[in-house]
Amino acid sequence: MKSPSVAALARSYRAERVVTALIGLLALLAGATALVVGQGWLGSFRAVRPVLDPIALDTLGNWQTHARVGAIVLGVLLLVLGLLLAARTLRPERHPDLALDRSVGSGLVVTASAIAEAIAVDAEQVDGVSRARATVVGDPEEPALRLSVWLHEGTRLKDVWRELDGSVLTRARESLGVDTLPTAVRVELGTAERQRVR
Amino acid sequence: MRVFVRILSLLLGLALAAAGALLALEVGWTWARPVDGPLLVPWPAWRDRLAGLTWQDTEVRVTAWVVAGAGLVLLLVALTARRKDVELLDPTPGVTVRTSPRSLARIVGTRVRAEENVSGASVTATARKVRVRASSGLESEEQLRPRLQEVVRTTLEDLPLTRRPRVSVVVDSPRDRS
């Protein structure tokens, strides 16, 4: 199990990668098997038999009901799995709002973008930080923070750390009233001052 | 590559769903009305075509090569879509810090170019290895290399990296070609 701060680093593509790799592996094996059969390495007689083998067709014909039910079940299964995969890929990343007070009638919710904006502005005040961007990610029960900071050239990383952790993150925790706020920081080092052309 | 995997998995998901729906639909249709012929896919024609082909035919072999090649491409794309972040030490528990290989290369490159007698440098960096290729018109590789190696080493030591990347420096100098 990844720790929440590691999980907050970036959106996970594990499911997409695993499925793509599995389908790729299956296609590779299928193609390779067809080539091996065609070469005659699994018997020279098999290589000259039709692709749609009459023996296989006979077997399917003998078990017609089973084959039909099996094909329909397989088709429905593929349909559901394919739609789930597509939906998962298209789903946007969650940015949970933070509920400070859950009592009915006087509930108080801070939206994810408000938290993110406040923390980013705060982080940009730190010496050596040229730009900062914050995002709230993760479960609503266990929100985490993703903070990207762009540092000026020649900034000492350790000084930035001390200030980020000592003031920015502490302030964020205090104002949100949470004991821990898992945080993933992405640092871009040595970025020059952006020069705007007007 | 990561965006590419996402697009690919979306397309694969939609293709799987479409194939599954057609399979279930055709089998169900033929089961219910055996005499009406196929619904959407002309599968009897495909069946007759496949029955006429043997495993040795060129068409079958070309298709097999194409399928195997496409599978290999999918596999490689999925395997190379890792995150290539460089790990930095956690300042406190609950805080994880990463930087990009590009940042590492950028600061190493700035330091190397700031050295005397270096006319240009290109740097490629990963979490494991930093490669520097510097060019110099005035100093030979033997003179410049130890100095640059030291510069790169101290630059990397200033960063709280969890693992020190190996450093390789190559100097391109016309003085070595005499």
Would you give an account of this structure?
The complex is a heterodimer of chains A (198) and B (178). With 198 residues, chain A is of the alpha+beta class. Chain A folds into two domains: 4-90, no CATH class; 98-188, Dihydrodipicolinate Reductase, domain 2. Chain A has helices spanning 4-7, 14-39, 44-47, 54-62, 64-90, 112-124, 157-176, and strands spanning 98-101, 108-110, 129-138, 143-151, 183-188. In chain A, strand 3 (129-138) and strand 4 (143-151) form a beta hairpin. In chain A, helix 6 packs antiparallel against helix 7. Chain A is elongated and about 75 Å long. The mean pLDDT of chain A is 85. Chain B is an alpha+beta fold and 178 residues long. Chain B folds into two domains: 2-80, no CATH class; 97-177, ANL, C-terminal domain (GMP Synthetase, Chain A, domain 3). Helices cover 53% and strands 16% of the residues of chain B. Chain B contains five helices and five strands. Chain B has helices spanning 2-32, 43-52, 58-80, 101-114, 141-157, and strands spanning 86-88, 95-99, 120-125, 129-135, 166-172. A three-stranded mixed beta sheet of chain B has the order 3-4-5, with helices on one face. At the A-B interface, helix 1, helix 2, helix 5, helix 7 and strand 5 of A face helix 1, helix 2, helix 3, strand 2 and helix 4 of B.
Q: Please indicate the percent range of residues of chain B in DSSP E strands (runs of 2 or more).
A: 15-25%
Helix content of chain B: 40-55%
Total domains of chain B: 2
Terminal CA distance of chain A reads 49 Å
- The sequence of SSEs of chain A as H and E is HHHHHEEHEEHE
CATH superfamily of the largest domain in chain A: Dihydrodipicolinate Reductase, domain 2
Tell how many strands the DSSP assignment of chain A holds.
5
Helical stretch tally of chain A: 7
CATH topology of the largest domain in chain A: Dihydrodipicolinate Reductase, domain 2
Mean pLDDT of chain A: 85
Largest sheet of chain B: 3 strands, mixed
Q: How big is the Rg of chain B? A: 29 Å
This entry's quaternary arrangement is heterodimer
SS-based class of chain B:
alpha+beta
